From TrEMBL:
<feature type="signal peptide">
    <location>
        <begin position="1"/>
        <end position="19"/>
    </location>
</feature>
<dbReference type="InterPro" id="IPR020018">
    <property type="entry name" value="Motility-assoc_lipoprot_GldH"/>
</dbReference>
<protein>
    <submittedName>
        <fullName>Gliding motility lipoprotein GldH</fullName>
    </submittedName>
</protein>
<keyword id="KW-0732">Signal</keyword>
<keyword id="KW-0449">Lipoprotein</keyword>
<dbReference type="Pfam" id="PF14109">
    <property type="entry name" value="GldH_lipo"/>
</dbReference>
Length: 165
């Protein structure tokens, strides 16, 4: 009886936290099987809610202690409904100077909410596609890291800019 009450309490608390996220417009994760291959592109199809408001965009990552780098390079591409493409190469800090992984979480899995773009207006009607690929290189090596270990999930998030939405 005590265990079922504890599970019910956890379920209610989780539901409250999820439902209180009023800034969220789009939030989706895709799992990475064992390691993130350098040629593997994670894609998200997005239908924006409107074309008049501005939004903040984020790349979300979950990583474990198996992630052995202090930073992360990503190539993020946004494909607009009418064919225009914007491609950015981004660098994020993943660990502090002592090597301790950044992000939130009490276990060895950390969650990172990484800025992608600020104040974006989806002016074209239709579906957008966001493609994310890692671009990690080891110092002194030309070829990229074939299998990036420690990244477990890649996500993309769109938020309202004002918290009162």
């Amino acid at each position: 009886m005590l265990r079922s009450n504890a599970l019910l309490f956890l379920a209610i608390v989780s539901l409250v936290f999820v439902s209180c996220d009023s800034n969220r417009v789009f939030d989706e994760y895709k799992s990475v099987p064992n390691a993130w291959h350098k040629d593997s592109v994670v894609s998200f199809n997005i239908t924006p809610p409107d074309s008049s408001n501005a939004y903040n965009l984020f790349v979300n990552l979950r990583n474990t202690n198996a992630y052995k780098y202090n930073n992360l390079f990503l190539i993020v591409e946004m494909v607009f409904p009418h064919g225009k493409t914007v491609k950015d190469t981004l660098e994020y800090r993943m660990a502090d100077s002592s090597g301790k992984l950044l992000g939130t979480g009490v276990t060895d899995t950390k969650e990172n909410k990484l800025w992608y773009k600020e104040g974006v207006v989806f002016s074209e009607s239709g579906n957008y596609q966001v493609n994310i690929q890692h671009a990690m290189r080891e110092n002194g090596k030309v070829n990229g890291v074939d299998e990036l270990e420690g990244i477990t999930d890649i996500g993309f998030r769109i938020e309202h800019i004002n918290s009162n939405k």
